[in-house]
Structures are given as C-alpha cells and as structure tokens.
Amino acid sequence: MRIRTKWNQPLPLFNDGVLSLFFVGCGSAFATSHYQNNLLIVHGDDHVMIDCGTRAPVALRELGLKPTDIRNWVITHSHADHIGGLEEVMLMNRYSGSGKATIAIEPAYQRILWNRSLRGGAEMNETSEGLRFEDFWEIKRPRRAAGLPRNAALVHFGRIELLLFRTHHFPEHAQSWRDSFYSVGAVINQRILFTGDTQFDPHLLQAFQDLYDIEAIFHDVQFFRGGIHPYLDDLMQLPLPTREKTVLMHYGDAWKQSQSRIRDAGMQLARQHCFYDFP
Ligand SMILES: [Zn+2]
Ligand SMILES: [Zn+2]
Q1: Å from CA of 67 to ligand 2 middle
Q2: 263 CA from centroid of ligand 2 (Å)
Q3: Is residue 151 classed exposed, middle or buried when 0-12, 13-18 and 19+ CB atoms within 10 A define those classes?
Q4: How many domains does the chain have?
C-alpha cells in the first residue's frame, strides 16, 4: 500500500491501472474536522463511490467534481452520514441532464432505501402516479455469494470487484449481524477489507483474513465505549499482524488525543483526500 498525496484538480476518476482508494471523507457522522466517511475507488477507467453522506456533495465540489460526475454508487446503510447527500445526487442526475447513474443494490435494501428515505422528496415531482426508484437509477444487482462467513453478494464495476457482506452495526443491542438492520462492508478485489460501519466484530476480521490474502483493513473506530462502532481500546486488543494492516476511519474530532496510542499499537489513521494505491 502506497499513499499518494499529490493529484491535480479536478480529482481524476481514472488512473494508469492501479487499484486505488480515496477518502472523500474519513470522519464520523458528526465530525467537523473531516467530511463523513465516504470512499471513492478508482481502477484504470473504472470508479465507484461507496456512500454519499450529508456533506458528500460539498466534499466532491471541493475536489473539483460535480456530484453528477460520479457514475457508480454503492450504499452501505441508511444512516445520514452515508445517504444524506444521495437524494441531491439523484435529483441532479435527473434534472441536470446527466442521466441515470448506476447503483448496485440488493432488492431488499432497495425497498428500504426508497420507501423509508428517498421517496418523500422524489416520488411526486412529475406525475400524479409518481416516479419509482428505477426512474432515477440504473440498477445493477449484486449476485448472492455462497460459502462465506455471512450473507454476502458480489458485484463488479469493470475491474473493481466488491464482495458486500453484512455487518453488525445497529441497533446497539443487536447480538450479531443476523439481528442487525441492513448494513454492509466490502472486500475489494479480494485484497482490501473495508468494514463500513460495524460494532467490534473480531470474528469478521479473522474469517475474511482466513479466506483471502487481505493486505489492508480499513476499519471504523470511535474513541469512547458503547454505541454502534468499535471502541479504540477493543481494536487495540486485536492480534498484532491484524493491527499492522489496520487503517482507522470514520473517526471523530478527538483523533489527535489518540494519535500516539494508535501508532504505538501498530495502526494508523486514514487520511482524507489522499490516494491509497495497491499496485
Ligand atoms: Zn457512519
Ligand atoms: Zn452507521
């Protein structure tokens, strides 16, 4: 993994063929020192953005992009720091002439995302019968993948492969991913584990490291105990080989106070607006 800090505006959505991750934001839901945790993946001419939080459209503008420039989307779950900007994106695509962007989404989550979040501001804009989710989006269906540690589905965007797996995120009292509300993380090209949002779930990390040769783990973190993300002190108990490939993301504004402890534990904090290249 190589970190590349220099690039020209507007942010390029293509490269010379390297798998590359770029944090449009790496902060928690309420962070003010970073944008929310939304990830762009670029590989050759292919790109996909994972999540579109409340502040993602502003973050994209800062990078020299319009929200309509992102042509492929995956959504991990319905918290506002992951979907709060999505309605703006889909309305802009329809009414600015950019045409439908593609979203990879399973049917069950499509119903949740539309009926419980997006429908209110989108359905009745044109006809009294109403518009549907598929009037705004080109839909790509992930294919269910069997034999994995938990429910998972596979989808490709050109050379980018995402294995979307269920996570144990919310409500707080859920015992496992099975009784959690819909949320997913992703294994990217069988090389990178991106947890999305999850509670502390060491079995998840071990199971996917046993299956694949995982080079880096991008993991959400929080700096206090309780709630629906892993507490830093719990992540510090992971085996050293796991910690040494762990990059912490989705962090709050108190990150500076924990920086040296994170480094001493062999981990690092994700950096916003840099490319993480995987040659
Ligand atoms: Zn979140
Ligand atoms: Zn969340």
Answers
A1: 22
A2: 25
A3: middle
A4: 1
Cα-based torsion angle of the residue sequence 160, 163, 164, 165 in order, rounded to the nearest 10 degrees: -160
Q: How far apart are CA 14 and CA 71, in angstroms?
A: 12
Neighbours of ion ligand 2 (CB under 5 A): 79, 197
Express each pLDDT in 193-238 by its tens digit: 999 999 999 999 999 999 999 999 999 999 999 999 999 999 999 9
CA of 36 to the centre of ligand 1 (A): 7
pLDDT value at position 214? Answer: 98
pLDDT digits (tens, 9 = 90+) for 135-178: 999 999 999 999 999 999 999 999 999 999 999 999 999 999 99
Domain limits for position 178: 2-278
117: three-class secondary structure by DSSP: helix
Starting from the CA of residue 77, give the closest ligand.
2
CATH code of 200's domain = 3.60.15.10
